[in-house]
């Protein structure tokens, strides 16, 4: 049976976090009543002229620096001509031959633990453009309404090379890009509001063939789960079509989450269909090196650099470092907690942030920015585990208390609830003597070679101390008593 190779490239529209639009002073705030944020420029009244928003350019420069792309000294805005009801001018102002950012790279991580691998995804370009309006088909008695609030909203379109070979790689790339644009503060990444939208160009070819197959573009994927489902269905559909003797026609397709299927929307346009030409109303965009260097000086430490530092300075595994740099908020939370816990607790602190805290946030549907347990509180909790004031099991009770607002610090809850760990050897030994006397049958089983009986005795000892005995001391003293 013929083996097929999947080829995927991603085009991403990131809405830039500016207060006003790319060529007008209208607000970009989400959720306003239809058409209240569309001025004369946005609705293309005769005689109006676009004026470029400086903040939009600075966002593009930040992105170019973050991906090690070339920030073009000269880029040109072009008119992309097509007709659609929510495009008042009859063309979209975009960039074509001369984009603001050329090239660049993204690194994605695949797998877990020791099997974690990295792959580089090359970027073709990133260019600035304006968004179109929105057609509303609901509640209009069979008619379509047009909302031009989005018209002119600034977008950075980021185009990857066709370097991905599975839906898993495509999702990993989209997640990494999503995290990066939020990290550098150029996009809020809100996929439900349309701030981060991906189009996946998917094709298949026999293994060993150099030429690409015919691609179909899956438009407006606004969740990572839908992206994976859409690509997987599209791949299987293309392979089945070819193997049945059919041929793939280049097309734009939509994904239906309810059916889990893609369906053709229109034949795919090529660049010549849009009749690009330089916009005569806009001068070329000139970016001098001093401007770029000023922005570079204000850039945050990037995810890759932070991952490397976490591995180098805190002796964390690559997997832990990757989990802790999934977002800037998580990375900042971890370092703030570690500042209280002390660097010697780097690994335990990482576990508490990426396992215990993450699980509770997920359960309650909260983002880390809304965590009821502040970073300093968690750091104080980890510090009490490190100095043997409490055990890991007791720490979970303290964490629950912090989460529910039962105290402002771990120390307060430990004191209030009497949770301090018993470390006095004499006291633990006396408790163990009582456990051995009350569980003669378990003692006999252990001496007969049943290791499980030892674990049961440890459990009885911990139960007798209400979990407050030092587990390691219990183990050591119990083994000593049992010979």
Overview of this structure, please?
This protein has 483 residues and is α+β, with helices and mostly antiparallel strands. It is built from 15 helices and 17 strands. β13, α3 (224-243) and β14 form a beta-alpha-beta unit. α14 packs across α15. The chain is elongated. The model has no long low-confidence stretch (mean pLDDT 91).
In terms of topology, how is this protein built?
Elements: E1 4-15, H1 54-66, E2 70-71, E3 74-75, E4 77-81, E5 91-95, E6 101-102, E7 105-110, E8 117-130, E9 134-136, E10 145-147, E11 154-160, H2 167-183, E12 196-206, E13 216-221, H3 224-243, E14 251-256, E15 261-267, E16 277-278, E17 285-286, H4 289-297, H5 303-314, H6 318-324, H7 328-341, H8 346-364, H9 375-386, H10 392-403, H11 410-417, H12 425-438, H13 440-447, H14 451-464, H15 471-481
Parallel strand pairs: 13-14
Antiparallel strand pairs: 1-11, 1-12, 2-6, 3-17, 4-5, 4-16, 6-8, 7-8, 8-11, 9-10, 12-13, 14-15
**Strands, total number:** 17
The biggest beta sheet reads:
10 strands, mixed
Q: What structural category do the secondary elements indicate? A: alpha+beta
CA gyration radius, whole angstroms: 29 Å
Note poorly predicted spans. Answer: none
- The span between the termini is 64 Å
Which descriptor suits the 3D outline? elongated
Helix content: 25-40%
Mean pLDDT: 91
Q: Beta fraction of the residues?
A: 15-25%
- What is the helix tally? 15
């Amino acid at each position: 049976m013929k083996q097929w190779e999947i080829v995927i490239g991603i085009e991403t529209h990131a809405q830039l976090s500016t207060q006003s639009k790319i060529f007008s002073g209208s607000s970009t705030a989400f959720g306003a009543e239809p058409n209240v944020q569309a001025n004369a420029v946005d609705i293309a009244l005769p005689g109006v002229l676009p004026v470029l928003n400086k903040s939009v350019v600075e966002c593009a420069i930040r992105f170019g620096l973050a991906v090690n792309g070339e920030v073009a000294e000269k880029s040109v805005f072009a008119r992309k001509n097509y007709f659609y009801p929510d495009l008042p001018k009859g063309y979209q102002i975009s960039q074509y031959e001369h984009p603001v950012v050329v090239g660049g790279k993204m690194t994605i991580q695949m797998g877990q633990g020791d099997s974690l691998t990295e792959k580089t995804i090359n970027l073709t370009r990133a260019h600035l453009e304006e968004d179109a309006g929105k057609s509303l088909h609901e509640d209009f008695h069979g008619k379509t309404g047009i909302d031009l609030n989005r018209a002119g909203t600034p977008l950075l379109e980021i185009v990857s090379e066709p370097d991905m070979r599975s839906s898993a790689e495509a999702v990993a790339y989209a997640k990494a890009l999503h995290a990066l644009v939020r990290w550098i503060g150029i996009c809020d990444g809100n996929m439900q509001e349309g701030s981060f939208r991906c189009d996946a160009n998917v094709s298949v070819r026999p293994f060993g063939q150099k030429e690409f197959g015919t691609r179909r573009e899956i438009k407006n994927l606004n969740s990572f789960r839908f992206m994976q489902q859409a690509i997987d269905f599209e791949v299987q559909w293309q392979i089945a079509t070819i193997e049945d003797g059919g041929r793939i026609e280049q097309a734009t397709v939509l994904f239906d989450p309810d059916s889990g299927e893609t369906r053709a929307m229109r034949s795919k346009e090529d660049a010549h269909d849009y009749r690009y030409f330089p916009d005569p109303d806009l001068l070329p965009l000139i970016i001098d090196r001093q401007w770029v260097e000023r922005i570079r000086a204000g850039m945050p430490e990037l995810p890759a650099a932070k991952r490397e530092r976490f591995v180098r300075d805190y002796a964390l595994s690559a997997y832990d470092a990757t989990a802790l740099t999934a977002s800037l908020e998580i990375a900042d939370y971890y370092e703030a907690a570690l500042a209280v816990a002390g660097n010697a607790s780097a690994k335990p602190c990482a576990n508490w942030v990426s396992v215990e805290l993450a699980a509770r946030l997920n359960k309650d549907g909260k983002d880390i920015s809304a965590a009821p347990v502040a970073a300093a509180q968690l750091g104080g909790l980890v510090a009490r585990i490190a100095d043997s004031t409490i055990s890991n099991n007791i720490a979970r009770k303290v964490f629950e208390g912090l989460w529910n607002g039962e105290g402002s610090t771990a120390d307060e809850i430990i004191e209030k609830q009497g949770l301090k760990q018993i470390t006095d050897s004499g006291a633990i030994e006396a408790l163990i003597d009582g456990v051995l006397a009350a569980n003669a049958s378990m003692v006999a089983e252990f001496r007969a070679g049943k290791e499980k009986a030892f674990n049961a005795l440890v459990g009885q000892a911990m139960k007798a101390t209400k979990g407050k005995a030092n587990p390691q001391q219990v183990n050591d003293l119990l083994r000593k008593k049992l010979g």
